[in-house]
């Protein structure tokens, strides 16, 4: 049964989506966006949430993080708990709304308690990273387990990573492989689950050792615009791991990951410019990319302090 907003919240939602620039097209995807837009205006809370996701991602509608955040907030106020959880993510990142980590955590806690598994997963991520709270990996694992049991595949992937490393849980590589495969082998695959599964195949841990299979899973993540996956794919091309060695492709994927602020990707791209591997040799370009790597948090690229 579809959720309906109160009159006050309905008017707010209608105001938020009025004037939204819908991209023209005849595809099923364009038609789906228009359907969500119209259903949201008519007061369907779930449609408003799904339309906000489209706005957030720029998926067949002009990207508008500010309007998406406001619409998630509205669905939350209308009682849709996954709206609270996603609005919390926007607050945590400061995406489309002023950053507010305290409010974000409160929304995660509230939505998790109300049964929105996305909230449990986001709350677990805070405890896993020690972001705004004391780091507590066992508690994070418990929250990821709850989220995974509730069919949130992001939680399954995060739990799989913990079982692979044995951090916060007793290490169990077979369970890790099952969880990561579960999160990757779906239509809406969780990209970092694919990357994790690729690493297990590279190492032969919990699954058969096979570089080609491992690189194929990592390639899936990169093709879904996961820049961490593209960085790992660049490593595979540079080292010929599961694919034929190709410095040109390695440089392309390092550059993409560098532009997405992955410091080590900038550093490795600098190394290719130093050697002239896959790119025209350029000490100046190498120096520039090492500087970017340092600025993006990769300490190995930073100038060493001279001892006094």
Structure commentary:
The chain is mainly alpha-helical and 308 residues long. The protein contains 16 helices and no strands. Helix content is 67%, strand content 0%. The longest helix is centred in the first third of the chain and has 14 residues, at 28-41. It is globular. The mean pLDDT is 91.
Shape: globular
* Radius of gyration, taken over Cα atoms and rounded to an integer in Å: 22 Å
Arithmetic mean pLDDT: 91
- Largest sheet geometry: none
Helix content: 55-70%
Summarize the structure.
The chain is mostly helical and about 300 residues long. Helix content is about 65%, strand content about 0%.
How is the secondary structure organized here?
Blueprint: H1 7-17, H2 28-41, H3 45-57, H4 65-77, H5 81-93, H6 101-113, H7 117-129, H8 137-149, H9 153-165, H10 173-184, H11 191-203, H12 211-223, H13 227-239, H14 247-259, H15 263-275, H16 283-295
Helix pairs in contact: 1-4, 2-3, 3-4, 4-5, 5-6, 5-7, 6-7, 7-8, 8-9, 9-10, 9-11, 10-11, 11-12, 12-13, 13-14, 14-15, 15-16
Descriptive tags:
308 residues, mainly alpha
């Amino acid at each position: 049964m579809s959720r309906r907003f109160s009159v006050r919240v309905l008017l707010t939602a209608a105001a938020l989506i009025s004037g939204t620039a819908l991209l023209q097209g005849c595809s099923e995807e364009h038609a789906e966006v228009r359907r969500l837009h119209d259903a949201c205006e008519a007061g369907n809370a779930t449609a408003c949430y799904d339309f906000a996701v489209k706005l957030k991602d720029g998926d067949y509608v002009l990207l508008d993080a500010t309007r998406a955040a406001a619409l998630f907030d509205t669905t939350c106020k209308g009682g849709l708990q996954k709206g609270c959880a996603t609005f919390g993510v926007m607050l945590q990142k400061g995406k489309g709304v002023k950053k507010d980590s305290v409010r974000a955590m409160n929304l995660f806690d509230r939505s998790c308690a109300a049964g929105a598994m996305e909230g449990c997963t986001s709350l677990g991520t805070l405890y896993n990273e020690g972001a705004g709270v004391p780091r507590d990996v066992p508690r994070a694992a418990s929250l990821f387990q709850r989220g995974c049991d509730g069919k949130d595949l992001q939680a399954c992937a995060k739990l799989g990573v913990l079982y692979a490393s044995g951090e916060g849980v007793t290490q169990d590589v077979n369970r890790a492989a099952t969880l990561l495969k579960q999160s990757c082998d779906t239509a809406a695959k969780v990209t970092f689950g694919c990357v994790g599964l690729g690493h297990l195949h590279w190492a032969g841990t919990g699954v058969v050792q096979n570089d080609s299979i491992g690189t194929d899973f990592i390639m899936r993540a990169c093709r879904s615009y996961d820049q961490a996956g593209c960085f790992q794919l660049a490593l595979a091309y540079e080292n010929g791991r599961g694919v034929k060695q190709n410095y040109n492709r390695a440089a392309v994927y390092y550059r993409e990951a560098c532009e997405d602020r992955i410091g080590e990707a900038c550093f490795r791209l600098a190394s290719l410019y130093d050697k002239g591997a896959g790119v025209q040799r350029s000490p100046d370009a190498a120096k520039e990319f090492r500087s970017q790597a340092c600025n993006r948090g990769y300490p190995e690229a930073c100038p060493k302090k001279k001892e006094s």
